[in-house]
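Sequence in, structure out. Go.
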Amino acid sequence: MDTVRTARFGEIEQRFYATTPKGRALYDECLAAAEKIREAEPDLIKRDYDGYRRAYAKCFAAFPKTLAGLLEQKLVYARYSATAKGLAAAKAGTIKTSDPAELARLGCVRAEGLRYEDFLPFSAAGIFASNLGQYGTKSTATARPIYTQATLEEIMGRKIVDPNVTYAGLEAESLAQVRTEFAKAGS
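Output:
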């Protein structure tokens, strides 16, 4: 039987473009810097909300604010499609680059950031832990169990999808389609 398992509580905590490993690493660095500010001055948000917002925003200054900037630095995945301008340039033989971000900047392709949504990555553990405590549940194991992705996959009876493989595949597929359309236009 083919099944799909999901957890849904109605809250999306993260919604953005799907980040590449490089993009996720940069995001995590920015988030860690912001968390250090919060830890160093826990009352800053109450004492000086505008100051807190400025400090928090400064931590994310390295993260581009536009899709074009994110694509240029290869921080997010995108779906690309050929534009009329791109097809005309392919027909004329004037396309001189294969870089997707550059093709988008030139108007030869349309770039749509692939969407990513994650349910409560920061909050879920706290929610579940508080619910366990609420009902007086306590582990009686002599050794604390270690749960891994492999353990979860064994329980589910299938592999967990690697989102980077999925998003990279979608992006590569769209670029292959663009190349095919450009080749047809140029012949």
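Check: The two ends are 47 Å apart (CA to CA). The first helix runs from residue 21 to 40.
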